Amino acid sequence: MSQESSWSWIQDSITEDLIEDLIEDLGARVFVILAQLIGLTSLIFVGIWMGSYAGGFAWQSDPDLEFNLHPLLMTIGIIFLYGNSILVYRVFSDVQKLKVKILHATLLALSLIIGSVGLKAVFDSHNLAKPKPHANLQSLHSWVGLGIVILFGLQWLCGFISFLYPKLSKEARSFYLPTHKFWGITIFFLAVANVLMGTMEYATELNAFSTYKSHGIIVNVFGICIILFAILIIYILTERSFERVKPDGDDDHITLMNVRNGLNDDESRTPLMDE
Question: Which cofactor does it need (predicted)?
Fold first, then answer.
């Protein structure tokens, strides 16, 4: 092979690699942006639903309207912020791992706080109802919802202790990591299912599908947005081409499953196994 043809072959190889990397990077960005747009759309529609069709918002001065904060805050906290918190390892794949961990924990903490306020809103709406209080925790939706918040709190606490402070050993982290991953995704799935369950429950109570045609459309579009948002989050998490890469000098980045299996960081990688 001549020197000229060799140089041409090298240029073609480099160009193909660059194009492939650009396509993968663009694909990841497109899916992330699409997830944000759909997630924000769901917030807009639940806001319209609660604000325009369910009577608006209030705090303890009007327990009936305080209830309307529950769907809005739960969608913001347990769906939108929670979903984005588990995306940070994909969105900031080239950022120092410790910074991403802190962002992950912060978003989850904010999500948990907002979700807890949303939970308080529904308890207040029952306990402060007139002429007499309503019973709490009667529906399947309420049981699952309370369980989600409790699991979420335990998950955040265990994750913080294991991966941030005081931070367990590599071996202990590698042992706990699969459990952390499993419950993180499971809680998100449960939250999505429970939001859809609660949506139908409240929409039926408000006669959304029999009184106003537009009311039912708002409810259905909101539900579809929640489903699409969840699908995009899971796709981005499981797509291998979007996996996190180790930035130069990032000593905190370890593929823990490889530590557990006695492998080097350059050897066999598994999706969703960086923590």
Answer: heme b
